[in-house]
RNA sequence: GCCGGGGUAGGGUAGCGGUCAUCCUGUAGCCCUGUGGAGGCUACGAUCCGAGUUCGAUUCUCGGUCCCGGCCCCA
C-alpha cells in the first residue's frame, strides 16, 4: 500500500522548488527594499481569530481541529488576521508607520481547481498606522513592483468603497453586503431584481448603475457628479496622482467590492494573464481590523499575493550554479574526500557514494549534467595535480588545486 | 456541496470480455578495472480501491477515492 499526498496538496520536485525559491527571494528583496520587515506567525491559531474576522460561515472552509486541551484551533487560512493579532498582542508601541510583510503557507478546505489548492502560499504586506493617500499609493505601487519583478503581466484595477457606500448609505448593512456581492461579481440582472425587491429609490438605482458602469482612467469627474465632492474622493485623487508619479499603470473600477465589510476605502485587485477561472493574483485595500482584535483605532492598508498563481505564469528561471563531479579510484578516494571539502567552499560538488568504477562515475557526471569533472587518480596525485575535464567541450588539463578552484569558481 | 472529463510500472503509453498485459523512457548492474553521451544484455517495476455482472473483468455496471477543468465560495 502506498500513501499518497493529501488532496489539494503538492510535492515540489527539485526543479520546481528551485524556481519557487528563486522567485520568492526576488519578491522578498523587493519588499525589503521598500523598507518592509518580514514576520512569521504560527501555522495554527485559535479558531476565534478567523470567525471573528470572517464570520462563523468560514468554518466550513477551514482545516480546524480540537487540540488535546479541548481548544478549538485551525490551520491559518490567510495571514492578515494573524498579523493584525500579532500587532495587537505585541507591536502596538512601535513607531508608525509599521511596515510588515510575510510569506507563508495557508490552508483552506476547498475543492481544488486550477490555481486553487488546499495548501497554498501567500505573500503579503501590511502597512499599519496610516490611511493617508501616500500610504495607499505606496502599497499599490509595492504590489505592482513585486509582480513586475516576478515578470507577471496583469491588469491592475483600483476602486474605492467609500463611493459606493455613500450611494448606499440609506440602506441597512445586510442589504449593502448583498449588493456589494452582486456588484463584485458584475451580476447586473440579479442586482436589478434585488433593488426592485427592496424598493430602492430611483436616484439610488440610477446612481449605482451609472457608477459601476464607469471604466477607465478619466472617470473621476463623473464619479464626482454622482456622489458629490466627498472627502474620500479628494484623498483618492491624491492617491492616484501619487501612483502616476510612481509610474504605475492602472484602471479604475468602482465595482470592486472585495468580499467582506472591513474594507473601508481604497481597494485594488490584479488579474494575471494566462490563468483560468482563478486568475486574481493579488488583492488588497485599506481596512479596519485592529479594533476587532482588541487594539486601538488604527487604520491599515495591505495586500495578499497568491504565490502559486504567480508561479503558474511566471517564466523566470534561476541560473543554476556550475556542477562539479569528483571522480576517484578506491586508492585515491580519501584524497578525493579531502578535496571535496575544499572545493565545496566554491561550487556544488558531487563525489562517488556508490563505490562505482571509474567509467560509471563519469557516466553519472554526464547524466546529472555536470559542468566539470575533476579526476583524482593515481597519476594525478603522483605529480601533485588534478585533471579538470570540461564536460561540454570534452577538453581536459592537468592543474593544481588552486588552478582548479580558480577555473571552476570563476563564474 | 454540485457538474463534466479522466486514473495501466518512477515518467509517457498500447490493449478494451479470453495465453505470461504492449512499447518507449527511467533506475541499478554487466559487456567495459583511467575517460561520459552510442549499442547490447540482465534486473526492478503497473491495470486507483471496493462491490456487482460473468465460466472469466485492465476492459462492462455501481459506489468510493484521487487527478484535471468548471460551478458555488473566495477572507
Describe this structure in words.
40% of the residues lie in helices and 21% in strands. By secondary structure, the chain is an alpha+beta fold. The chain has 2 domains: 14-313, BirA Bifunctional Protein, domain 2, CATH 3.30.930; 324-408, 3-Layer(aba) Sandwich (Rossmann fold), CATH 3.40.50. An 8-stranded mixed sheet has the order 1-5-6-11-10-9-7-8. A hairpin with a 7-residue loop joins strand 9 and strand 10 (280-287). The longest helix has 20 residues, at 14-33. It is elongated. The two termini are 47 Å apart. 31% of the residues are buried. The mean pLDDT is 93. The chain binds one RNA strand of 75 nucleotides through helix 2 and helix 13.
Amino acid at each position: 500500500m502506498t500513501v499518497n499526498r493529501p488532496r489539494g496538496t503538492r510535492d515540489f520536485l527539485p526543479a520546481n522548488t528551485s524556481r519557487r525559491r528563486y522567485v520568492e527571494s526576488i519578491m522578498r528583496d523587493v519588499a525589503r527594499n521598500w523598507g518592509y520587515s518580514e514576520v512569521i506567525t504560527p501555522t495554527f491559531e485559535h479558531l476565534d481569530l478567523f470567525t471573528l474576522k470572517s464570520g462563523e460561515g468560514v468554518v466550513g472552509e477551514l482545516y480546524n481541529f480540537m487540540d488535546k486541551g479541548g481548544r478549538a484551533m485551525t490551520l491559518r487560512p490567510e495571514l492578515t488576521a494573524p498579523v493584525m493579532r500579532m500587532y495587537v498582542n505585541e507591536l502596538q508601541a512601535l513607531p508608525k508607520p509599521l511596515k510588515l510583510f510575510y510569506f507563508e503557507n495557508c490552508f483552506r478546505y476547498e475543492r481544488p481547481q486550477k490555481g486553487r489548492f488546499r495548501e497554498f502560499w501567500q505573500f503579503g504586506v501590511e502597512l499599519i498606522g496610516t490611511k493617508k493617500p501616500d500610504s495607499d499609493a505606496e502599497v499599490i505601487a509595492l504590489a505592482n513592483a513585486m509582480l513586475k519583478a516576478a515578470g507577471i503581466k496583469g491588469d491592475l484595477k483600483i476602486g474605492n468603497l467609500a463611493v459606493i457606500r455613500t450611494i448606499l448609505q440609506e440602506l441597512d448593512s445586510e442589504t449593502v453586503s448583498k449588493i456589494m456581492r452582486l456588484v463584485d461579481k458584475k451580476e447586473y440582472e440579479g442586482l436589478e431584481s434585488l433593488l426592485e425587491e427592496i424598493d430602492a429609490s430611483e436616484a439610488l438605482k440610477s446612481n449605482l448603475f451609472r457608477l459601476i458602469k464607469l471604466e477607465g482612467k478619466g472617470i473621476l469627474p463623473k464619479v464626482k457628479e454622482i456622489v458629490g465632492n466627498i472627502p474620500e474622493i479628494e484623498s483618492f485623487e491624491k492617491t492616484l496622482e501619487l501612483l502616476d508619479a510612481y509610474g504605475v499603470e492602472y484602471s479604475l473600477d468602482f465595482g470592486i467590492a472585495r468580499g467582506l465589510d472591513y474594507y473601508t476605502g481604497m481597494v485594488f485587485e490584479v488579474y494575471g494573464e494566462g490563468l483560468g477561472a482563478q486568475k486574481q493574483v493579488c488583492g488588497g485595500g485599506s481596512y479596519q481590523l485592529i479594533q476587532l482584535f482588541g487594539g486601538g483605532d488604527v487604520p491599515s492598508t495591505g495586500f495578499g499575493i497568491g504565490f502559486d498563481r504567480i508561479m503558474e505564469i511566471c517564466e523566470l528561471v534561476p541560473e543554476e550554479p556550475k556542477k562539479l563531479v569528483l571522480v576517484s579510484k578506491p586508492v585515491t578516494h580519501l584524497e578525493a574526500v579531502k578535496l571535496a571539502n575544499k572545493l565545496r567552499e566554491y561550487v556544488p560538488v558531487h563525489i562517488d557514494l556508490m563505490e562505482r568504477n571509474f567509467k560509471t562515475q563519469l557516466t553519472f557526471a554526464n547524466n546529472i549534467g555536470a559542468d566539470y569533472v575533476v579526476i583524482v587518480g593515481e597519476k594525478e596525485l603522483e605529480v601533485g595535480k588534478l585533471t579538470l575535464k570540461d564536460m561540454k567541450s570534452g577538453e581536459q588539463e592537468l592543474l593544481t588545486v588552486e588552478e582548479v578552484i580558480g577555473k571552476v569558481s570563476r563564474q
